[in-house]
Amino acid sequence: MSGSYYVPETSKWPALGSAAVGLMMIGMGVVLVHGVGSLVLGLGTVAVLAVMWFWFRDVVIESRQGLYDAQMDRSFRWGMGWFIFSEVMFFAAFFGTLYYVRVFALPWLDGEGAKGIATLLWPDFTASWPLMNPPDSSISGPRDIVSPWQLPLVNTLFLVASSITLTVSHEALKEGLRATARNWLIVTLALGACFLVVQGVEYYEAYTHYGITLDAGIYGSTFFLLTGFHGFHVTVGVVTLAVMLGRILKGHFSRDDHFAFEAGAWYWHFVDVVWIGLFLFVYVF
């Protein structure tokens, strides 16, 4: 294949993937708005996972057959780079929402700024963050907030440590030290799993002890949208790295040919950086 560019056969996976994602998004929207539709959401999620499994399986088979050259490697790298950029924009929208609410909307409702006339809506409202008392009395705010210096700090340490262990694993793989790469990747997976367990405990405490729910005003909704979507991305990262571990055990990677592992590492480091932003702007400030 030297000097050529591999063009795969016509594939059904892009169309099926788009349909699966659309079904999942419809289900998620119905669940968030109406509280029903979990069956549609579940079917969409299963469909997305099935498409990913079979599509990536085909890519692995083609790679193992030696069909990919340097041009294909660049295509994969650019593709992964643009995918992570799209994820950056995804979270930027939520961080932008948080910024808009805290810097503009709440002060306006309290009579400050260029649109301070909005205070006429709820004249007795006093702006503060976290917003414990929403201006609309029909909405109950949270009873308390999650302390950043307990479970969120523990999770921050887990993710920072996981980036370090994953880097060690990657460097070992580049040196051909397969056993070392395997062992440090297992440690990374354990840290990622610990993060998800701790976040589950935190969510339980938020719901049962602090009254933080999606219905607890703007603070509750932004809290769960930001941390919830991040938790979903951590789950995807754990699954991705688990697949990379399986491929290491099968001997798929070499010192110079392991972009799948590298792409998974890029994604994991991105997820870690997003969490640092969440820890600072959702929990601390």
UniProtKB/TrEMBL annotation:
Highest taxon above the source species: Bacteria
PROSITE patterns: COX3 (PS50253)
Protein localization: Cell membrane; Membrane
Pfam families found in the cross-reference section: COX3 (PF00510)
Any one biological process term the GO annotation gives: aerobic electron transport chain
CDD domains in the cross-refs: Cyt_c_Oxidase_III (cd01665)
InterPro entries documented for this protein: Cyt_c/ubiquinol_Oxase_su3, Cyt_c_oxase_su3_dom, Cyt_c_oxidase-like_su3, Cyt_c_oxidase_su3-like_sf, Cyt_c_oxidase_su3_a-hlx
PANTHER family in UniProt: CYTOCHROME C OXIDASE SUBUNIT 3, CYTOCHROME C OXIDASE SUBUNIT III
Protein name: cytochrome-c oxidase
Organism the protein comes from: Aidingimonas halophila
